[in-house]
Amino acid sequence: MRTATTVEASGRDWPQTAEFVVQAEKLGLDICWVAEAWGADAASPLGYLAARTERLLLGSGIFQIGTRSPVLIAQTAMTLANMTGGRFLLGLGASGPQVIEGLHGASFGHPLTRMRETVEIVRQVFTGEKLSYTGSQFQIPRPGGEGRPMRVSLAPVSVPVYLAALSPKMLELTGEIAEGWLGTSFVPEGAHAYWTYLDAGLARAGRARSDLDICQGAEINLVDEARLAEVVASRKKELAFSLGGMGSGQTNFYNDAYSRQGWSQVAAGVRERWQAGDRDGAAGLVTDEMVLATTLIGTPDMVRARLRAWREAGVDTVRLYPAGDTLAERLDNLGRGIDLARAAG
């Protein structure tokens, strides 16, 4: 398996984050994705990291399609492809209504169609040809106006497109049109909750799963047996936030993904308590099994076995989110995780 990680530019912690990425490259990491949620944007730190790294692939993990025009996404991708010497991967995601509508004031409507049309436009721009596009969400040039088809003044590029997807329809679209899938909340024993839809999209496009880079992420924390229970317990509130707070009361793709993998009752209970403001009660419903199934927390033997299960389930690239209170601790977890992933095949 290839190895990756995800970072975010978080204000005063950025110098340490940048040093983490530089050292991760020296450890042999293959890819660094830069996140974008409701804090820092992803493009700015990617430009900085382009100058600090030499071999590492750098990706947007993800650009939110509801906050940028498709052409701006393409221009940013082309710029970063040039700055990195061809080391850039374009990760796109729809985000959710809480961020897109609640923070940016844009409509979250028709995310599936918007994603398809965005990717089509981005790839047209990549060719360097004049852009002319008519869809239900985007019309370029705008009809009835004074604009005429234009091309961007950048050399054509070839940039792989990855989609962050959890819902069935977005998973199908990923299989149909993308080079990679950025997934999360993954349980190898419940992988059918994803493969069913990814494979349907792949079949629609006449492709096989080998045509898609399956990139999955999880926290990695190598601990001894004496600390295992404590570490698992400390992870439950964060998982409860994913199930109850990542989205609105009606739309939470993380909650839906866990539900499809066998935890529908727990996921519903966690969301109900979290939305009611009972954060401790929500975390109390999360089981040890849920934490261990969807993370790489455990002894080296436990993590080694989980990585083998991920590989056998079809994961090509594992995104490692190393735990640790200090830079040294995070790099230690990351380095050991890289070694274990390589040994897994």
Q: Can you offer a commentary on this structure?
A:
The chain is α/β, with parallel strands linked by helices and 345 residues long. It folds into 2 domains: 2-221 and 295-343, TIM Barrel; 236-294, no CATH class. Helices cover 49% and strands 15% of the residues. It has 14 helices and 12 strands. The chain has helices spanning 14-27, 43-52, 70-83, 97-100, 111-126, 168-177, 192-204, 225-234, 236-244, 253-275, 279-285, 288-294, 300-313, 327-343; strands spanning 2-7, 31-34, 57-60, 63-64, 88-93, 133-134, 139-140, 161-164, 180-183, 213-222, 296-298, 317-322. The strands form 2 sheets. An 8-stranded parallel β-barrel has the order 1-2-3-5-8-9-10-12, surrounded by 6 helices. β9, α7 (192-204) and β10 form a beta-alpha-beta unit. α1 runs parallel beside α14 (327-343), α9 (236-244) packs across α10 (253-275) and α10 (253-275) packs across α11. The protein starts with a strand and ends with a helix.
SSE arrangement:
Blueprint (H helix, E strand, L loop, with lengths): L1 E6 L6 H14 L3 E4 L8 H10 L4 E4 L2 E2 L5 H14 L4 E6 L3 H4 L10 H16 L6 E2 L4 E2 L20 E4 L3 H10 L2 E4 L8 H13 L8 E10 L2 H10 L1 H9 L8 H23 L3 H7 L2 H7 L1 E3 L1 H14 L3 E6 L4 H17 L2
Parallel strand pairs: 1-2, 1-12, 2-3, 3-5, 4-5, 5-8, 8-9, 9-10, 10-11, 10-12
Antiparallel strand pairs: 6-7
Helix pairs in contact: 1-14, 3-5, 6-7, 9-10, 9-11, 10-11, 13-14
